[in-house]
Amino acid sequence: MNIRAQVSSVFHLDKCIGCHTCSIACKNLWTDRKGAEYMWWNNVETKPGTGYPTQWEDQEKYQGGWVKQGEQLQLRIGGRWGTLGKIFHNPSMPTMDDYYEPFTFRYGDLTSAPAGDDQPTARPVSMVTGKPMKIEAGPNWDDDLSGSNIYAANDPGVVKLSAEEQQQLFAIEKMVMFHMPRICNHCLNAGCVASCPSGAIYKRGEDGIVLINQDKCRGWRMCVSACPYKKTYYGWSTGKSEKCILCYPRQEAGEAPACFHSCVGRIRYLGVLLYDADQIESVAQRDDKDLPAAQREMILDPFDPQVIADAKKSGVADQVIEAAQRSPVYKFVKEWGIALPLHPEFRTLPMLFYVPPLLPVMSMNNQGKQKLADDFFATLEEARLPMQYLASLFAGGNEEEVKAVYRKLIAVRIQRRSVTVGDLPAEEVSKACTVAQLDTEAIDAIYRMTTLTRIKERIVVPPMLREQAIEAGMDPEEHKQEMGFGKRISPKRRW
Amino acid sequence: MTDMILFGVFPYVAVALMVGVGIYRYCIDRYSWSSQSSQFLESRVLFWGSIPWHYAILLILMAHFLAFLVPSGWAVVVGSPLRLYLLEVTGLALGISTLIAVVLLISRRIGNARVSAVTTVVDWLVLLALLLQVATGVYIAFTLRWGSVWYMHTATPWLWSLLKLDPQVHYLAALPAVVKLHVFNAFLIAALFPFSRLVHVVSVPLTYLSRPYQVVVWYRQRRVR
Ligand code: HEM
Predict the structure, then answer these.
(1) In this structure, what DSSP letter does residue A11 have?
(2) Suppose A1 and one of A184, A264, A287, A310 were both cysteines; which one would form an S-S bond, judging by CB atoms 3.0 to 4.6 Å apart?
(3) Atom of ligand 1 at shortest distance to CA of B36?
(4) Which of A303-312, A403-412, B125-134 has the least mean pLDDT?
(5) Is the Cβ of B220 closer than 8 Å to some Cβ of chain A?
(6) Structural domain of residue A350, as residue ranges?
(7) Pocket test for ligand 1, best of B50, B196, B199 (most atoms within 8 A of CB)
(8) CATH code, A216
(9) Domain CATH code at residue A444
């Protein structure tokens, strides 16, 4: 056993209102710089939709993630020689047009234009060239299904559906959508790490945060292709790749990452998971449909005395084990089983999990009416958003996985309805619990966690023990001002 | 006198800059050490520019270095007329590819607004120096046969004399001006190296072939009880 700790997250999609506050918080902190304007380490997509960058889920196009090659895993962009062979020009690298050209407006013209017959206007200008441009794309261009006959219809997950399912999805007045915020998944079997020719990308041993060593990055730009989630970004001005750092400087000070902290809908949960690192390779090779379950299995019970003993032997600090016991992510993913990884079939073992959205699933027949358990579960079959679509997002195509989650979410509703309105017969409620395989205690806990908790319960930042690490190894007097401040050279092109 | 400055002194200056500034930059500002890829801004022309450029220039450079470092082996290779002919034809073909490629690389830095927005003065110096280098190289290959033979009697002994800190510029004295330009420009490029994106050449990531896929870095020594 080689037990490691991973700071992991859960996003509860039923609670996301698509306000983009997370994106703005992140942008203001980290990417409001030349060369990084187009980067949205955190972005919010409308599903169905093509996302950012356009059709990022289409790995035929972008060649991200891993493929099984017999008994081994290989990066889809190629083996080691293949990757190096593409170093002079990377054929599957997205270009700026796959994201969007960052723009601003000449606001100054509004006040400085000479008097004339026409209203002065603030023309849009490119933040790359400085020249006037026509704005034709943005990071959430298809927000709330705008242009859905172009964007939603070309969602790689929608394209895969049958003609009938597509028709059902796009029926006028029945169209459904949900918002899906995305950040780096800080994967266990990360494609970006594996693809970096310089070895500049690494996972921090203590907390599993994946970072790019900016001094070691040489701009070979393989990570941009190899990340199937397109969450490493090439800094077009600096010549360095960058990605979400899970706000590790904030976490080291005990604070929640900015996107978590600012989340209006309180959809975000953060906590430590313990897992067995020796299993990474074998789990990542399981069949598509088994991947969600296999990933769940490799997560260990932080209350199990054997696990605790092994974790200590592997060097996991006591305080971190204690944080793992309070982890809301463990509850969502493992205890309740209502959070699933995004696109597990990319085989990177992403450590950000989603509670799939219930609202867009409830069938049309049920709108506004409260039905009994039987009807409720039947709705899964005639859901407005085809189960296959959700299964291809969150379960490698395994519908049973998503249905199991939905049964639980529905059971929570039925139970809460019986408590607050009291118009459901007791046997209906207990039947719902049986179908969902949840006891009332768990239902209460889910209800509590999704509605009533405060930030300290939703976001359990483990002590990162950096201070202690310095004290143990080196003289803090001598090294003061060196830790936590990062580079003191500004990230600009100088040579 | 001019020859002495150009071929007896300048090479030392160039190499000193290359090594001195190179190490300084690597230590002080490693963040700046990058290929400065512009593929994100323009990919299509880059394909036709970068791939032929790199494969061809690496092979040509290798030939120059081999003839300098192992002249005896090189002499054997060019000893037979057939091999000499094959070598020269290959070299010429590669040279022409670099020439076309560098023209394409330059054209996209002029023609594409996004790429030209990220192009610095040094980028221009590098590309123009490289253009001059491959253009004179191809011209020499066409007009002064057979370079792979006379190189061994001119450039090789001269380079060795430089290495022995006893520059013998007379080896180059009788060569036509275009060859002298080619030689001087080569060291000019070396001098540009530490100030430009050319530093990427010494960062060839060969360790990628043997390292484990996943990299895990521990902040502390893992304390194993
Ligand atoms: C094996 C060694 C080398 C590797 C791995 C390498 C790799 C690269 C890469 C990744 C780029 C960026 C291309 C892009 O824009 O995406 C680049 C650009 C460039 N390389 Fe190399 N290179 C190597 C050797 C050389 C050599 C020997 C030279 C010339 C002496 C050279 C000259 C250039 C130039 C001039 C550019 C800029 C092209 C442009 O954008 O205009 N490289 N190289």
Answers:
(1) E
(2) A310
(3) 12
(4) A403-412
(5) yes
(6) 1-93+147-356+453-483
(7) B50
(8) 3.30.70.20
(9) 1.10.3650.10
